[in-house]
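W.,

You were right to be curious about this one. When I first looked at the sequence I had no strong expectations either way, so I just let the prediction run and decided to look at it fresh. Below is the sequence, 217 residues in total, followed by the output.
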Amino acid sequence: MGDSEIDQDNNIALDREAGVAVAAVNYRLAPAHPFPAPIDDCYAALRWLHAEAKGLDVLPERIAIGGSSAGGGLAAALALMAHDRKEVSVAFQLLIYPMLDDRTALRTDMDMSRVRLWNNKCNQFGWASYLQREPGGVDVHPYAAPARRESLSGLPSSWIGVGTFDLFHDEDVSYAKRLRRELPASSGSFRVPITRSTSSARKPASSSSSVRATSMQ
């Protein structure tokens, strides 16, 4: 799980149908490579894409980032990192049932009979592998768990989608509401619609992360 080819068919379809270039990041995986290795790899890929944008016929000011599940969590963290370091820009973040909050692994009030595929036992293992300690501690870095971020102001336009029966439903809706409050509305922008479905045809939590760019053509 987590190989850059996991979403290859979707990425090819996006390229053909939307006319955008897609770069899939083959980031290192936990537990062999815990935080911050995966997010560092994603940031390195974003910097590379900006540096090579002209040669790739890409508009650097229209580079978007996105991912699903754990890859969506990495995309959210990448938006935070790019905002803070101010070396490269991000125009948009696409977060598909993103894994954002390690504290969900501590919850005991969730109805696991409604959850599809990735339950909280899996979640606890995933976060422990990534953090190299038990989830829910007081000092987890927001680049590891973006929901830990105190302020989301200054982030790019965003879209978050999650299924009603997804384990990440509550944390994703909470993050979307925070983004909606903290991102100022502006003419022509695309701002954080909260999209739900009654089920979640999701992939395992170690899904891919992609960097998407609009071609100059």
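Here's what jumped out at me. Strands lie at 20-25, 64-68, 92-96, 157-163, 191-197, 209-214. And, maybe more interesting for your project: The longest strand covers residues 157-163.

Coffee later to discuss?

I.
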